[in-house]
Design brief:
With 390 residues, the chain is mostly helical. It has 18 helices and no strands. The protein is globular and about 55 Å long. Helix 14 packs antiparallel against helix 15 and helix 14 packs antiparallel against helix 16.
Length: 390
């Protein structure tokens, strides 16, 4: 059985290696840029709620701040997609990279949690460029979208493997605040690589047969996928309730911030990388099956967090690994949507999906904060109830 598993995963990675060699130069550059972005973000992403608590915020205030940040992201996606339908996606991407670098430096210089909020919100706004990234990657691709988009996301996730480990080690010696400053420098390097890509027009996908549509007409054309988008939003809500304050839960079990970053963050990043590749491959011929399997893995992670104790840490590490399904879940949804709509509304459709995902995450964060103050295990239990509905 072990030999069969090794053989299966060897074939899986051989397949994706051959897929990588067939990718365009631009997509390879985007993958490298996303890898660096993931490395920078991974230095602070998994400890961000716990760090805000160390800056003086109560757990419920942390959850409320994350909910507002998610709403800011939600409000940015539709304008970002709308812009990507009308202008060169490369320009939209570079704007997001620049905002992210500036925001990271602002967070690193914050002296308390109130001063931390503007940087957090600006960083949340920088994610407006995600629809543009997905459009750019889609239009430069010659492979199945489920694999192309998840493979690019796996590059970001692979960077997240490096970031948490390095961040966990550095936080022990130089503190947590400098991690945000280092990440800001990495973001600007990543932006420099993005500048080396060719413009959208070089891919030749905008033609006279697909003119720019008015915003109202674009929205009307998306009605057939409206029900699908709503179901995806509920799935995001269900899976994020228990994940929002997982780091704070472990803090109550005497995990220090370095352990959460090194063990939990690294495990989740490895999960994001491997599960994005595996689920992307699985979903090529079974798109709905890929979405269902990702939810089942997150369901299992909630159980693993519930059985974690101060002395039994392996279950939490395994739980973080399975939480890596979140990224694949979102990208599989984006891949389906990108393949179901016309080019001249693709940016808006992807932006709308990202908006609904962020709104769902914001609602989940707010609910998690309320539940956490009552019983620290209730957010996990709420996800266990909601995920089967999804």
């Amino acid at each position: 059985r072990s030999l069969l598993l090794v053989t299966r995963y060897s074939l899986l990675f051989t397949h994706h290696s051959s897929l990588f060699t067939l990718m365009s130069r631009d997509n390879k550059l985007v993958m490298l840029a996303l890898f660096l972005w993931g490395s920078g973000e991974g230095m602070f992403l998994y400890i961000l709620p716990l760090y805000m608590q160390q800056l003086g915020a109560a757990p419920q205030q942390v959850a409320e701040a994350l909910a507002v940040a998610a709403l800011v992201s939600a409000c940015s996606f539709i304008p970002g997609g709308w812009l990507a339908d009308r202008f060169d996606p490369k320009v939209i991407m570079i704007g997001g990279w620049a905002l992210g670098g500036l925001a990271s430096i602002m967070m690193g210089l914050a002296g308390d949690w109130h001063a931390f909020i503007p940087g957090l919100l600006l960083y949340s706004l920088s994610i407006y460029c995600v629809p543009a990234i997905n459009i750019y990657v889609t239009e430069a691709s010659t492979a199945p979208l489920a694999q192309t988009i998840t493979l690019n996301f796996s590059a970001f996730a692979a960077g997240n493997i490096v970031g948490p480990f390095v961040g966990g080690q550095l936080s022990e010696s130089i503190g947590t605040a400098p991690l945000f400053l280092i990440a800001g420098v990495i973001f600007f390097i990543s932006m420099g690589i993005t500048l080396q890509t060719t413009s959208h027009a070089r891919h030749g996908h905008r033609s006279s047969q697909q003119p720019i549509m008015p915003f109202g007409a674009q929205l009307k054309s998306l009605r057939p996928i409206g029900g699908f988008l709503i179901r995806l939003a509920f799935i995001a809500f269900a899976t994020w309730i228990g994940a929002t304050l997982a780091a704070n839960y472990l803090g109550l079990l005497n995990w220090n911030i370095g352990a959460v970053n090194t063990l939990g963050g690294t495990a989740q990043a490895i999960g994001m990388t491997l599960l994005a590749i595996g689920l992307g491959r699985f979903a090529v011929n079974r798109p709905r099956g890929g979405l269902v399997l990702a939810q089942l893995l997150i369901f299992a992670s909630m159980i693993l967090f519930l059985i974690t104790s101060a002395t039994f840490r392996f279950s939490a590490v395994a739980g973080y690994f399975l939480l890596g399904s979140h990224g694949a879940l979102r990208e599989l949804a984006n891949a389906q949507i990108a393949g179901q709509v016309e080019r001249n509304v693709r940016g808006l459709a992807l932006g709308l999906n990202e908006t609904l995902f962020s709104c769902a995450r914001a609602a989940a964060s707010g609910l998690a904060g309320v539940l956490f103050t009552t019983n620290v295990q209730w957010p996990f239990i709420a996800s266990l109830i909601a995920i089967p509905i999804g």
